[in-house]
Amino acid sequence: MQVQVRDYRWDKRHLWFIDVPEFTVYEGTEVKPGKWENPEEVLCITTGNPNFPVRSIRRQYIVSIDGADSKPVESSVRQIKIPGSKPGSEYIVTVSGGKYQCTCTGFGFRRTCKHLAMAK
User: Which residues contact 93 (CB under 8 A, 6 or more apart)?
Assistant: First the structure.
């Protein structure tokens, strides 16, 4: 499979001290993404290099696959505002790919909080 990818640095290429190509073509065989990656957001292909066997490509940057145009997959990210217990405080719960995240400090420590329960 051939995947043509638009470089995310292209729009601000004047800020880089290196030449930034607009497009790069990668070749390989599609493989299953790791369990830490969301398959809706990432395409993984083999590289043929034993030291770097798999390349993860964000789908939003893919221009074409095997010459066929690829439309970016719309992100299914939702953000829910949850009022905090103190007056005027507010937390944002982000839902992406069935996974929940919160901006509160409790979520940062425990990976769960009461705001997630309220959002669900």
Answer: 79, 80, 81, 82, 100, 101, 102, 103, 115, 116, 118, 119
Answer yes or no: is pLDDT of 33 > 70: yes
Distances (CA, A) of 39 to 26, 44, 58, 93: 18, 9, 10, 21
Confirm whether pTM is higher than 0.90. Answer: no
Are 29 and 85 in a shared domain? no
**Residue whose C-alpha is closest to residue 80's, from 97, 98, 102, 99:** 102
Domain ranges, residue 37: 2-69
Query: Distance between CA atoms of 104 and 85, rounded to whole angstroms?
Result: 11
d(CA 43, CA 96): 17
β-strands 77-83, 90-96: how paired?
Answer: antiparallel
Show the 3-state SS of 59-88. HHHEEEECCEECCCCCCCEEEEEEECCCCC
